[in-house]
């Protein structure tokens, strides 16, 4: 395995929490509810799931389903970026360059 390859081992519980958060955020098989998606998304993010970390950071940055908090956005986007998530790297860069959430982030991250 090369140095640039990162292998992440996630428990079934963390993966299921992430999948549940996506279903709630997208409204798959249920009513779309970003606020309800936050709890399982946070569980998955705290468990180290890089996509959940990126999604949670995005929701914090945009203030969707949760109060806007740029510090938390940067925390979760940074954690995801450290695991190699390119979308998190892009979103984090946009926040740092602009000092605010760029409309570009919203456009590129229109789906979780």
End-to-end Cα distance, whole Å, is 29 Å
Main sheet makeup: none
Number of helices: 6
Which parts are unreliable, with pLDDT below 50 for 5 consecutive residues or more?
Answer: 1-5
Report the sheet-strand fraction: under 5%
Shape: globular
How many whole angstroms does the radius of gyration measure?
14 Å
SS class: mainly alpha
Summarize this structure briefly.
This protein has 6 helices and no strands. With 112 residues, the protein is mostly helical. Helix 1 (12-26) packs antiparallel against helix 2 and helix 3 packs parallel to helix 5 (86-98).
How does this model look, in words?
- This protein has 112 residues and is mostly helical.
- Helices cover 65% and strands 0% of the residues.
- It is built from six helices and no strands.
- Helix 1 runs antiparallel to helix 2 and helix 3 packs parallel to helix 5.
- The longest helix has 15 residues.
- The chain is globular.
- It starts with 11 loop residues before the first helix and ends with a helix.
Overview features:
single chain, 112 residues, mainly alpha, 0% strand
Reconstruct the topology from this structure.
Blueprint: H1 12-26, H2 34-46, H3 50-62, H4 70-82, H5 86-98, H6 103-108
Helix pairs in contact: 1-2, 2-3, 3-4, 3-5, 4-5
């Amino acid at each position: 395995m090369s140095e640039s390859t990162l292998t992440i081992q996630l428990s079934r519980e963390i993966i299921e929490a992430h999948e549940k958060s996506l279903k709630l955020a997208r409204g798959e098989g249920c009513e779309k509810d970003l606020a309800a998606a936050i709890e399982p998304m946070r569980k998955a993010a705290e468990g180290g799931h890089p996509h959940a970390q990126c999604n949670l950071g995005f929701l914090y940055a945009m203030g969707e389903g949760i109060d806007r908090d740029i510090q938390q956005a940067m925390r979760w986007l940074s954690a995801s970026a450290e695991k190699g998530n390119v979308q998190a790297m892009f979103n984090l860069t946009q926040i740092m360059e602009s000092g605010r959430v760029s409309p570009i982030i919203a456009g590129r991250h229109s789906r979780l």
